[in-house]
Fold this protein.
Amino acid sequence: MAKRVGVDKWLFGTVLLLVLFGLVSVFSASAVMAQQTTGSPYSFVTKQAAFALVGLIALFVLMRIDYRRYNNPKLIFTLMGVTGILLIAVFAMSGMNGAHRWIRLAGTTLQPSELAKPVIVLFLAWWLQTRIHKIDDIKETILPAVIPPLLYIGLIMKEPDLGTAMVCAAVLMLMLYLAGIQMKWIAVAAACAAPVMYWMLFHVAWRAARMKVFLNPEADPKGAGFHILQSLIAVGSGGLGGRGLMEGVQKLFFLPEPQTDFIFANICEELGLIGALCVVAAFCLLGYRGLRTAFLSRDPFARFLAFGLTTAILVQAFFNMSVVLALLPTKGIPLPFISSGGTSVFVTLACMGVLLNVTREVD
């Protein structure tokens, strides 16, 4: 297939648009709170802009590096080892809100679970590319493919970060499905995961309470149900066209984490249904261009790489929006490109740089 001279301009433009919109959204959601807590309304957005700038530099660099260079077991296992060490190192750090998810270095924080997603994709792309013809061989293909990602997922769940662990598990299953694995093996995996998920959700006290609140948030509107109800109030009060940018009310110490986990609720309130649908449309366009690249590529490694990087973003965006709309229980997971979070925006932009390089290989 003829090699494209440039990268996919639709994908490139969509990524830039989402990043710029994210900076505006972070400022709108955090300005009042930042003024009260730090004395400057720009503290959150300035930090986000710095990470976005570094992420964009990484994007421009990586989209010029031939993706085939990553098809190297020495590089892949080095990245896996470093990521595994970082995932273990978080437990040596002091916790924050009862969780060990961050490594603090030089006045900033690193969230290793964000690194785990692209590393899992890279490992699976390398492992599955030559095993499509024997994808259902449990000893030679399936077990070696799932054991390293499952170790990462276990460490992430231990932090605890069930939301990111579920994103990683979903990407794992989707990439195996793309490789042609029979549905019986996916059913077996689901059957094995079901008791673990049941235990995690209903036998861990705080998660069990969260599940009860999810089913009936009105039972404790000022306590456990506060997050969900305030999010729904923000979404509903936006109407069709919204209150206007910077005019949201729920972010004024009602909506929890308006610049991170619940930023989509603030977008719905300020920009209304129209603004929310525009955000959804942007992710749909990104997903279409990314998956198009995967399905048009003749190189199996490129196909798996593009598919995994794209689905990781789509699954995470789906989880975040579903939490905001009370379709899923509350979990701390950012909206890609948009939510405040330095590691998230940097890693996501770096992944898009790799994906954009792959787009050079298709018409």
